[in-house]
Amino acid sequence: MIAKISMAVSIVLAILVAVLWFKVSGLSAGSSAADSVQVAPAFAGDNGPRATVVAYVNGDSLNTKYNFIVEKSKDLDQKMTAAEERVKKEYGPRQAQYEQNMRYAQEHPDMSEAEAIALQQDMERLQLEMDEIQQREVGVLQKKEAQLQEELLNRVNQYLAKFTKERGIDYVINKQSEFQVLLYGNSDYDITSEVIAGLNAEYESEKQSK
Question: Which pTM value belongs to this model?
């Protein structure tokens, strides 16, 4: 009754892979406009722009090997199963009554107008209650999933902020089957294993400290 909610990772790491070229012209050396122009540090040197370093992370591997995702996915699956049981418990009797009303209407086409109106109102009530039950449970699960997605992005981005600074990396791209940004990547620039190992180490340390 409730569609399975996946924990697909759409990691917004950084998709800007083109080097941005800034050219400042037409400004005199003594003009106030020149003083207000801020040139990006990568382009401010006398020798021109420095080489940009781009690496990538395999999002599919991150999905299956990052312990935070694995554990939280299992937890979300358990919550979904529990929600389905609650829906079945509350939804089932109402559905049975709705179907019983339908059969009664078909078997008694000559019922009075008052009886027909009362039957119709009862069926509308049952349908409204069934819709509310599903919407309530699905809404709770969707909210939980959104919170997990936000936490996941924060964790990955915070770790990559440190990792890229240590390695001198400018951009990290997500290479994933469901979210294919990178069509080809030289495996020499695949930092997936290091990133997963670092993320798992941080996550385990965090759990042990609690």
Answer: 0.66
Q: Cα separations (Å) of 171 from 20, 70, 118, 166, 167?
A: 13, 26, 65, 13, 11
Cα–Cα distance measured from residue 151 to residue 68, given in angstroms and rounded to the nearest whole number: 10
Q: Report how far apart, in Å, the C-alpha atoms of 48 and of each of 21, 23, 41 are.
A: 10, 11, 10
What confidence tens digit (pLDDT) does each residue in 90-120 have?
A: 988 999 999 999 999 999 989 999 999 999 9
- Site of tokens 């937890």: 75
The pLDDT tens digits of the residues spanning 125-136 come to: 999 999 999 999
Q: How far apart are CA 102 and CA 123, in angstroms?
A: 8
| CA distance linking residue 37 with residue 26, whole number of Å | 12
